[in-house]
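Continuing from the previous page of notes. For each protein in this section, the sequence appears first, followed by its structure tokens. Read the first protein now.
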Amino acid sequence: MKTNLCRALLLTGLIGFSAAAGHAQTLSVNVPFRFHTANTEMPAGKYTVHQISSSAIPILVLRNWDSQKSALVAATGRIESSSGDGARLVFRCQDSNCALSQIWGATMGGGVQLAVPKSSSERLSVVYFDRKPAAK
């Protein structure tokens, strides 16, 4: 009985996860410089970005096609879209160190904010996604 209950809960969770992942849009982008996420350093190269959780705090996966390195990033908040700038990654940079701070277009209804330490001498770098869907 206990085993059947565990299986039912696991199956329900997998179905919910698949449904959320099925509605996510996968985007492709070429980032010409190395950068940091909240917990890892990522190399320059071609990336795909897609949402794996559609909860109040979205979780996204960044995957580098050359190195096969992936990173999970959790949003700290949502950003409503006020312009038609399109899908993009926004980085906060200081000297040659850049950190991913926003992702636009991979989630429904605008962008998401990521945790990044702020600095007084930083600059923004923006990398736009390719217009065509990413190959799987």
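Done with the first. The second protein uses the same format. Note its length before scrolling.
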Amino acid sequence: MDLIRRGASRDLRVDFARGLALWWIYTDHIPGNAMAQLSLRNFTMCDATEVFVLLAGYGAALSYGATMQRQGYLHAAADVLRRAWTLYIAHIFLFVVFTAQVAWSAEALDRGNYLEETQLDILGDDPFRSLLEALLLRFQPSLLNILPLYVVLLIAFALALPLLRWPRLLLVVSALPYAMVRITGLNLWSWTGDGWFFDPFAWQFLFMIGAVLAYAPPRMPRRRWPLDVAAVTVLLAGAIVIWVIDEHTAVSDRIPEVLMRLVVTEDKTGLHPFRLFSILALVWLTVRLVPFDAAWLRSRLAGPLVLIGQNSLPVFCCGIFFGFIARLGLEYDDGAGMQVVANVSGFLVMVSVGALAAWYRGKGRGGTRTSGALPATARPDTG
């Protein structure tokens, strides 16, 4: 049975890119993983998080925008909030499992640094308050700060749904909080006192951009080469920052301090404009270079990543859990053999989880459809 959804109007480029982002998240979260050197963050000023958030907005608009057109705003908003609740429950479950995993490993292996690195050491100092703050999403250990961001973004999207009919207005309204972040450092409060690692006031702008691209895609300009040049320039500038300026102090010392702060100090928390421009440049070049109906997206080689991307929530949760196991393995032996085991087994686990999730989804509908348009009840995985 084909587990990959292939509706006539389904853009497999989105599924493939989301699957690739999940793979990069897995590799980037494992210290000492050689495969992390091939992830997006080593070549551009953005990384898998930008890809994931943009595509989350894209998928949300495709799904809930269509619901709003058919059944009205209240039905669509209710579906968005239900999805936000699902993500919240998944986060709490992942928090409990990951905490138990890290705590047991720290005690069994006498590695107290595990608790410090993940910021779970505070549980020993104030366990009851920690649990309360975790439920309120104000306590977010390392690696567990993406799902809380999605929960807040979906709640904001439920309020912004009517503005999809006026995409320019939506972008203006969304740009205002982003500007406040860049000017004042606006952020949600966290129990640790540093604010959220992914500032929702900033990242909602990227989410809404993705939503607008899906619901009201702009027309392709007649003269496309200026945007081609701009996109390539942005990516080349990012590569220069990563490979030259960051790596050679002799070069960075000659750059004026004002320019260094503007270009090099690209904070991830507040979605630095350089990061924003980088992901938008990648989107433009992807649209230009990869056709909607590219045959390779339906090949067996691309199939596993497409499958992962279509079942992102369970795959992400599994990747966090298995990624820590892979870390333990690489700390025991970081040789080539263990590198292969950590990455190949991790990929196989992610594909297996995606296949299992797809099977259950198809089972619930009486079989997975492999051709024709998606049924009205079939929605992209927006988590």
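What the second structure shows: Confidence is low (pLDDT under 50) at residues 367-380. DSSP finds 16 helices and no strands in the chain. We return to this in next week's lecture.
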